[in-house]
Every structure is written in structure tokens, then in C-alpha cells.
Amino acid sequence: MSVPDSSITTAQRYIDFLLSREKNLELPVIPRHCVISYVPDVIGQMKALHSHRMLTLGVTNPMQLYFFTPEEGRSFAMARGMHGAPMAAVQLEELIALGCEEFLVIGPAGHPTAKLLPDMQLGELLLAKRALIFEGTSPHYGCSEYSLPAAGSVERLKITLQDLGLLFRQGTVATTDALYRETEVFINELLEQQVLAIEMELSALCTVAECRGKNLAGLVFISDLVRTDGSWDIAPSPKIYYNVVRHLTNAVRGYVEQ
Questions:
Q1: What is the CA radius of gyration of the chain?
Q2: 28, 99 Cβ separation under 8 angstroms
Q3: H/E run at residue 89
Q4: Could you tell me what percent of the chain has a pLDDT over 70?
Q5: Residues 6+ away with beta carbon under 8 Å from 174
């Protein structure tokens, strides 16, 4: 997929502008691999495990970027994910402009369900195979129905999770702009399309990555249950969340070291 026309505003121009005004800023060697994390505690765990350098880049909404240099294995970067499809796309464009090539996205997602016992439980992991577009960013890149993560990256992440002995599902994610407009009608529409999780960034990230010829995979954990009976189980217990952070940290380590 390619964008049908060129843009006057580009991430490369913005990054060049930032670097030109920060005369004393020295960028490290930009690693090929970058993890975009919507789970700050996973970044915290990685900071405790590896030596790193933090870079804050931007003007009105700066991006926090961490560069890790493990004693063994390849170097990699981690960015704290920006929320919502528009800012997620902006952030990915800028990471690509910096020089990153391979991306792993981790974060929370709701599970739509009409069942008393849902198909997925709080804390379960889902490897995204497809992302339905209910956000407004992807159409600007020429994609309007669904976007796909890179098949090779998905397979690599699948092997990583299997090698770690982690339980996970594979399936379709839906991305919406409107967290507080997940109505009964909308949830039923998702269920008809066999959607297992709903969140706010992944379809736009897949769209941008495909457009720019980069590889991206997405791994989410079920953070809440959205039921057609009108109930909403909002968050997992602290114990479940602790295990999620541990599993995601191990998944990140395994993925970047593979």
C-alpha cells in the first residue's frame, strides 16, 4: 500500500527541524527495533534490567524515547505510546523518520462480549492478526476498512510467545476513536465480525507501518470487559495486572533478542 499523494507536512521535516534547533543534542545510533508501549510499567521493568538513555523529543507534546543497550543481544528503543489513533500515527511517523524499522506495540484492550462467561478473561494476551478501522486517521493513508500487521512480525512474535510458554489467543482487533461511545449496537457489530478486542491505536499504526514499508506487530492484554447487557468490568485485579506486566516484559525481551 502507498499513499496516493505526497504531503507538504512530513515527519522527516519535523525531526530535521527539531535537530536543527537543538544544537547540543547528539542522537545515539538509532536501533532497528522499537517497542511502543502503552503499559508504562513494562518500560519501568526494562529500565531496571538494562542500561539506557532517555531522549525527550518534541515541542508541544514531547515524545519520551528510551535507548537500551543490553550486555547481550541487540540494542533497541522503547517509546511510551501516545494515545488515540491520530497521535499514535504521528509518533510512529516520527520514529520511522528517526530510523527505526521494526516495531512491536503492546497495550491494553477491552473485550466485547454478550456472554456471561466471555471468550477472553481479564489479563489474557491477544496477538492481533487484523485491525478493523473505526478511526479517522487510516483513511488519510488510503485505508478505510481494516489494516494488517506484518505477517513476518506476527509469526516471529508468535514463536517468541510459544518459546516463553505464554498462553495467548490470535484474532481480530477493532480500533475506535470514541472510548465512551461503545454502545450496545456497536458492540454487537463487533461481535458479528468476531472481534476479540477493542482499543484506540492499532489499526492506524498498522496502516502507517504498511504505508511506509515497515514491519509492525501488536500484542494486547484484556484490560476490561464490555458487555452487551450494559455492564462494564473496568480493570483486572492488581495480581492479574502484575502477571500481565511480567508476561509482557518477558515477551518484549524475547522479541527484541530473537
A1: 18
A2: no
A3: helix 85-98
A4: 98
A5: 131, 132, 134, 190, 193, 195, 197, 198, 199, 203
